[in-house]
């Protein structure tokens, strides 16, 4: 067969690699995506309130280590059970339905009661696609490389909540990162700030596109602590940095 690779950029997100395989002999085909960047400093959780058919068409990047959940149905797609995909919310539900229907003939032959319960659950998933009643769609990715589209970007989307969090040692080990020792003494919070670059979302002062601001607490020898802040916009290339005092105002000038 033939595998084709395409490096593409998703607006207001980042670059990804789309991989497509096709076999001329049996006509089997498959697609998956991989992040073109490294694992992010923090994990990310997208929580979307789906209320209309337009929401079902939102673009979704789901990496293989991400967990997808629909709390109203107590439904979850665990990490590492699917390849990374570039799809829509409706596409994720269709893949789940196809996976559940795959072994239904065998289940009906061996255990009809289980097959009936799965048929009932498949019906609930299919009704979600009609968006007749609102539901919540959650993607939790400790690698930070998953994404749910905001059609109103760069404006804020009231239906979409994006939460960034620090990975647990177990999540870091799951991603193949060097885990921290669980029995280490808790570090001094001020020392953590000196060793860590904090990142938070802002808007670019030039083009108002979503940008990220990095903040670092630095100890200058024989002086005091200062805070260095740097903003970099991927859309227009605008860059700025500034320094703020990390301590209180002195008693004297």
TrEMBL record:
It is found in: Nucleus. Its main location: nucleus. Keywords: Metal-binding, Nucleus, Zinc, Zinc-finger. InterPro entries: Znf_ZPR1, ZPR1, ZPR1_A/B_dom, ZPR1_jr_dom, ZPR1_Znf1/2. Residues 1-150 form the Zinc finger ZPR1-type domain. The keyword Metal-binding applies. One of its GO terms (molecular function) is zinc ion binding. GO terms for cellular component: nucleus. It holds the Pfam family jr-ZPR1. Belongs to the ZPR1 family. This is ZPR1 protein. It comes from Chloroceryle aenea (American pygmy kingfisher). The gene is Zpr1.
